[in-house]
Amino acid sequence: MNSKTSWQQQQCQSNRSLALWTGLWVLSLALATFDPSYLWASSALSIVSVVINIILGVAMIIANKRHLGNQDELQRKVQLEAMSLALGISVVLGLAATTLQQQGVIGFQFDISHLMLLLGVTYIVALLLGMRKYQ
Amino acid sequence: MKNRLKVLRAERNWTQNDLAQALEVSRQTVNAIETGKFDPSLPLAFKAARLFQLPIEDIFSDQED
Fold it and tell me: By CA distance, what is A71's nearest residue in B?
């Protein structure tokens, strides 16, 4: 019983696929964000870079869906708890911060990147806590 | 829910990884079930019953029992 089963092989394959598409999407996002100011000054190329970014984003979403489908029931439970916590905290804190900003209570300018950072950090922390909980 | 997975596994000299492979779950999931931190779904419980060739109630029982 030492060789990898087809289920384990599928898991490795879906992990690799998700890592690949996520890496490509991040690269394309970096390209679309930075290149207009450094490499080209054409709005057509900017549109192409954003379209490529969206296409790679869709591929990443599909890979993530397959990845979740290949996980076992405990792994899915941990993922679900982490995602619900990350979404909840980001929505609640994001809207609270925006409200405070609109009312002039805080001077700091919030934008989408701060929300993405909060979402990502919360998800990673919640995932690690969930994995530790069931260890 | 209590279970006898650890005992049944030990009787067969299987590691947690062996059982995980047979049930098509991760080793962490087997460990979480054995330690009572996670209750398996009915399909997974039936899969374990088929694997050990035992009735499901001989492996899993209600905590009140």
Answer: B25
Reply yes or no on whether the pLDDT at A21 is more than 90.
yes
| CA distance, residue B27 to nearest chain A CA (Å) | 10
* pLDDT tens figures, B15-59: 999 999 999 999 999 999 999 999 999 999 999 999 999 999 999
Count of structural domains, chain A: 2
Q: Tell me how far apart the alpha carbons of residues A11 and A82 are, in angstroms, rounded to a whole number.
A: 19
Could you tell me the residue range of the domain that residue A94 belongs to? 72-135
| Cβ neighbours of B24 in A, within 8 Å | 5, 7, 72
CB contact under 8 A, B24 and A133: no
pTM, 2 dp: 0.83
Tokens of A81: 């708890």
Show the domains of chain B with their CATH numbers: 2-55 (1.10.260.40)
What stretches of A70-111 show up as alpha helix (H) in DSSP?
73-102
The nearest alpha carbon in chain B to A5 belongs to B21
Q: In B, which residues are within 8 Å of A133 by CB distance?
A: 37
Residue A55 identity: I
**pLDDT for B22:** 94
Asked if residue B7 lies in contact with residue B61, where contact means CB atoms within 8 angstroms, the answer is no
